[in-house]
Design a protein that fits this description.
Length: 329
């Protein structure tokens, strides 16, 4: 099943199911959150009843609504799980660099901003950057499971927490990110201005026949820039499975219904990886008017156009250096 949120022409936001070319809202204006909190088995049963036997008078043709991010996440973790991607990125710092031993020891992630998500066709408004980039990713959405509080989970228990999958594009201002990472903390403003999520959540049951024997998803992913193929990969090339990522995130912490956990960029899934391998800023960074299209087998696609950055921002001063402050006392 496909679960989405959309904006009607009058501005109202609704949530529900996408079926037969229509958007079928939940009764009484209920939000998508109620499905995630109910868990996957309950959602599937309710969805079948609504779609097969429910009143269709309030269904809307899909082309008459604008899809927005399919949920409002409680948190967003973004991992880095494709070795090919990491290899290309580290070469951006040194041509002789290799993937660090620490990367292989455990999956790494950072928290990104759940308040700046954009929909599958919404323009992306970047900060002022000379190196705007995209990232081809897929994310899992966590759902409720009986007798599980999301803490200290085994891999097997974590697999039961997967409600569904969606496309994730972690837009990046690489010049801002590079400066931030020199402080040994981040990324922050190089990442948190916008992340594409959508076009909908495809429930986990639809991927049960795509799981390999060792738990990876055999799903093709691809990306295009201005209609020209850029890169492609398969989720089975991740270094860890999604349940392993969830279990790791739950260690000494908690993963809750409504959380989003992303795979990290696939191999050939961003411009910076190519720049690192060649030592050249080629292909060029994104510019206003460019269209980035992501295609994921079994989920669908997103297509965002790069907009102009905001005209101006209020100034923020640089640091008050300690020595200068001491002399002023």
């Amino acid at each position: 099943m496909r679960i989405a949120r959309w904006q009607r022409r009058d501005g109202t936001i609704e949530g529900g199911f996408i079926h037969d070319g229509h958007a079928a809202p939940l009764p009484d204006g209920r939000p998508v959150d109620v499905l995630i909190q109910a868990g996957l088995p309950t959602t599937l049963a309710f969805g079948r009843e609504l779609l097969e036997e429910g009143d269709r008078s309030d269904w809307r043709p899909l082309d008459t609504v604008r899809l927005v991010p399919p949920l409002v996440p409680r948190s967003v973790r973004d991992f880095v799980t494709f070795e090919e991607h990491v290899e290309g990125m580290v070469k951006g710092g040194s041509r002789d660099a290799t993937v660090s031993d620490e990367w292989y020891e455990a999956p790494t992630f950072y928290f990104t901003n759940p308040h700046t998500l954009i929909g599958p066709t919404e323009p992306i408004v970047p900060p002022r950057t000379a190196r705007l980039d995209f990232e081809l990713e897929v994310a899992v959405v966590i759902g409720a499971t009986r007798e599980c509080d999301g803490r200290h989970m085994s891999v097997e228990r974590a697999a039961d927490q997967i409600f569904g999958y969606t496309i994730f594009n972690d837009w990046s201002a690489r010049d801002l990110q590079a400066r931030e990472m020199k402080v040994n903390l981040g990324p922050c403003k190089g990442k948190d201005f916008g992340t594409t999520l959508g076009p909908w959540i495809v429930t986990a049951d639809e991927f049960s026949d795509r799981l390999t024997d060792d738990g990876f998803l055999d799903v093709d992913v691809a990306i295009e820039v201005n209609g020209v193929a850029f890169g492609s990969d398969n989720l089975s090339r991740m270094a860890w499975t999604f349940p392993e990522l969830i279990a790791y995130a739950s260690r000494d912490s908690r993963v809750a219904p409504g959380d989003v956990l992303a795979s990290g960029t696939s191999g050939q899934g961003c411009l910076a990886e190519a720049w690192g391998r060649t030592g050249e800023i080629d292909p060029p960074p994104l510019k206003p008017g460019d269209t980035v299209r992501i295609l994921v087998d079994g989920i669908g696609e997103t297509a965002n156009v790069v907009a102009e950055p905001r005209a101006s921002q209020p100034p923020i001063p640089s640091a008050r250096r300690r020595e200068a402050r001491l002399h002023a006392l």
